[in-house]
Amino acid sequence: MANQARVVSIQDNINRVTRSIQYPRKPDGKPVYTSELFGENVFHLQQIAKALPKPAYASFLKQMRGRQALDKGTADAIAHAVRIWAMDRGATHFTHWFQPQTGSTAEKHDAFLSLKSSFSANGEEVTAIDAFSGTQLLQAEPDASSFPSGGMRTTFEARGYTVWDTTSPMFIQEGPHGTSVLYIPSVFISYNGDALDEKTVLLRSTAQIAKSATELLNLIDPVPVGAQPRTNHVFTTLGTEQEYFLVDRSLYALRPDLKHTGRTLVGNLPPKHQQMDDHYFGRIPSKVLATMSETELELFRLGVPVKTRHNEVAPQQFELAPIFEEASLAVDHNLLTMDVLSKVAHKNKLKVLYHEKPFKGVNGSGKHCNWSMSTDRGENLLDPTVKPETNYRFLLVLVAVLHAVQQHGGLLRTSIASSSNEHRLGACEAPPMIVSVFLGEHLTEVLNSIEESRPIKNFSVPEIQTIKLGGTALDVKVASLPAISRDLTDRNRTSPFAFTGNKFEFRAVGSKQSPAFPVTILNAAVASALQDVTEALRTQMGDKPYPSDADKVAVIKQFIASTKAVRFEGDGYSDAWIEEAEKRGLPNIKTSPEAFEQLLNPVHSDMLTKLGIFTQSELQSRHLILQERYSKDLLVEATTLSTLLASQILPAAFEYRGSLAQTVQVLKTIEGEEASPELTALQALTPVVKDLQAAIAQLDDVVHKMHHVGDDPVEEAKFACAHVLPAMNHARAVADKLEVLTADKYYPIPHYSELLWF
User: Fold this and answer.
1) In sequence order, what E strands does 459-503 have?
2) Which fold has domain 629-756?
3) GS catalytic domain location, by residue (predicted)?
């Protein structure tokens, strides 16, 4: 039977005992508190401080802050200390862990083992030693031509370098057979110093936004001549809400489309999916909870501050969210989280799906990036405080963010564009492709009142409401319940960029992608906008030593007026918003190839190169990489779909059709008349089988044509978007009809109803 493998997998899933591990306990048997094991596998600054003389440690801190280079003596001392620390914890190898433009991380393991030769009258004697030098710590040399480079590296120009990022701590991860591996977070650059990764440009953007924000803050908050400025550094904070699906691994193995593309290319929704709204925040299945708990244990040890876990809206969809951290470290931790979750799920016979839309018809997965800025004194620059209308620092930063989105919304759209995220955006609680900003009723009123020079409306808490139950009045102000505080804003889940109390939530980022590139672009746009606000303040204040409150208000009013078009409080899914956005001049970039072109738009490219976040060659390289990845993604999907349909779905339909025809013939022989029920089924099946054959031929023809478009990645991406994707959608529509008509025992791959169930 074609469905035998499915039946066996489902039976195994039902009978499988949930994996259990021993949570760490103290010698007296009491459990170890989370705070006690947090970061135990991380080589913190405290360990470096213990290993280095005070002058060397002070030198290292200056290097971390970008004030001087790291000398060889200090590097050797740190390398020796981290080797001893790691080997005491079972490490046999080390790796430079970096983020090439593949959407994931990369690593190459080298052993600490080395050989030392000595020569005597008896000849050479070789001794095995453990060694790790400062040079090995600082850099390594992978082949740059083997990673996406957009033409910046070729096979005959292959050299590239990974360089230790001292701002992100080293850590160890479990290896095979009770060993472990030392991980060294690194950047990845070419022989000529060009950025080939996601982290280098992210670090450049964080440095630039720190410079721009610090300049603005010290202008509006001056100190006496000769005194230290109140703000020496500003950093961006990030919290990434990671959504994902979990499916049974044995069923996953029976779906070639899931294995090769990360999403189902055929399949119909089961009768019950998410329409009952009963999965969101529901009871977490035991197998999933065991996976979550084991993942969290590993992440706590790695210093990743995971905080929240829960069911998401779609069946078998879940979320894991951390506490806010400095942005570049938060990106490292998000990628580490994805890696650890995948490994732990594998141990639990499950498979994590990070694709933005693995199942058609239910909610997709995002990576909501909660972004803000903080000073070196711990002040959140996006905290509106009790009276935002008179908090001019907050308002100046707020209008700078609005200005950034107004000027560079198209570039933000680029940062979240991919073939996979295209399936998610614009429906099922995912934001639309038009980038706008939601502020909420209160802040909108604050900005409107300032622009119109009038008093702000009263936003006191509304009167307590009552609810009638069974003919009695129940006052919701129950004495036994604590008082609650209401946020300044409601939540608009159709907004791609929403203010959520003291931060902005960039909701459009896809679950599969690294948050590095979207955050880099956001940092860059805001850094540029902060410079514009600062320049406007200097112009407004004239020859005065510092701006007055009236100067600040004048500049705030100027930017409120100029950024009005990008503010939208309504339903982002409505057709009316599409029409309104067009009137406002907001870009509605519907496809990824179109979005990638924004990288080369002078409005955006000039900003990025002026700030020093990208060089022109790096921009051109990234543009080609994005276009090429898009076309390759669709080509892999199209080829996988064609193979799946031709080798599994269609033969199953042939077999079922033959069985029906044989039954019709047998019954006609026995009964002397047509077997009408079976004949009706056969007549319904036959034209769909023919349609699927035609759809496969059409898809194969389009794929063949794509191979002959040429070597231009831009044209290939455009062709894939315009021709391959529609051909795939048509073939799927026909195949999904066939799934309904084919008897279950003949259907060769797991249905949605089996994948979306534990």
Assistant:
1) 466-469, 472-475, 497-499
2) Four Helix Bundle (Hemerythrin (Met), subunit A) (1.20.120)
3) 198-649
